Amino acid sequence: MVKIDPFEVDHWILTRSAGVKHNLAHSYCSAISINDLASATGDCNNETENVWSSVFAQPMSYGPMKGSAALRSRIAALLYSDPSAEPLSIENIVTTPGGSLANFLVLFALLGPGDHVVVQYPTYQQLYSLPAAIGAEVSLWKAHQEDGWRLDLDELRKLIRPNTKMIALNNPVNPTGAALSRATLEEIVKIAREHSIIILSDEVYYPLFHSVSPTPPSIISLGYDKVVATSALSKAYSLAGLRVGWIASRDPSIIDLCVNSRSYALITMSRVDEHLASLALSPPTVQHLLDRNNTLSKRNLQVVQDFINQHSSTCQWVQPVGAPIGFVKFEKDGKPINDVEFCTKLLEKKSVLLVPGSKCFGDGNEFQGYVRLGFGEETEHLKASLNAVHEFLEEEYGNLPVF
């Protein structure tokens, strides 16, 4: 049996979210309904009616093995059409049920025992726990809050080994909301090219860079074929329930390997989900969704910053520039608070759900005192949630243990 570590963040949320009043554990922008999606098409677009007619008339066969051509065409046009790069063919895109499965298929297809992977850290646990479960060696390329969560490129060079097969990135970064700039990405590509290393970039929050300009590019546009980008509609587009993600690469052999692993796991996608996803990525709908979520993220970012300013003796963060999430460190008397106990008591006393960093993004000794805070919900709900946290800090914080 393959030994795989518990997926701590999902288990934490799954076992605690039922009935919670203030959910700050979500990592996506406030979800929209299918009715909202239909409304977003605008009066000038009759595609809503056409999509539903097509859904009802469509024979429920397996459909295209790589996914809907219409959907893949829109993904290519939206995300991988940098004018400085060659256009990406739809044959270089494969759809999947969500971004997590996209990552799973890429890692399963491309890695094996004896391979070595360098993984940006902190990041989504899947990107380092799954390679380890497959039998690969994993080195963590660590960023630190005191450096603004910036990555040290010299450190990356030191981590490269003769058997290094992959560098795994996440941009924007979960849980910090940091961004890898074009200059940083170009240097990573240069290093990878020198050693013929594959780059996997989890871009599930792309292009939701709400507070940085210019927007960093997708890894796909930087002129190196041995790159793979994964993404989904869940985070930046508020459609987690559709379960539509994708894999993109300029290397046909990488796509072929991913299609093969995909065939073992699911054969093809839901044709209904793909039709709705195609609607979401149609103009002007997609621009409406991105404008809405960038505006929401910017507004809510200021709400959280005001809260942190109010409690500056207790908590701090590096202000996120992408994604509706941030990594907040709580301290008491100069020592990190026990973040698991903090989150447990906060949920018990005020029905506020946060994600403890030392449990869900580290090994228990790292990220002590940190919590991931999601600020993608509607602004009035966010304010009510932070008011509840404020009350807890006033009433209970002095009694919490530290590390």
UniProtKB/TrEMBL annotation:
Domain of life according to the entry: Eukaryota
InterPro entries: Aminotransferase_I/II_large (IPR004839), PyrdxlP-dep_Trfase (IPR015424), PyrdxlP-dep_Trfase_major (IPR015421), PyrdxlP-dep_Trfase_small (IPR015422)
Protein name as annotated: Pyridoxal phosphate-dependent transferase
Record keywords, A-Z: Transferase
The Aminotransferase class I/classII large domain, residue ranges: 61-377
GO molecular function: transferase activity
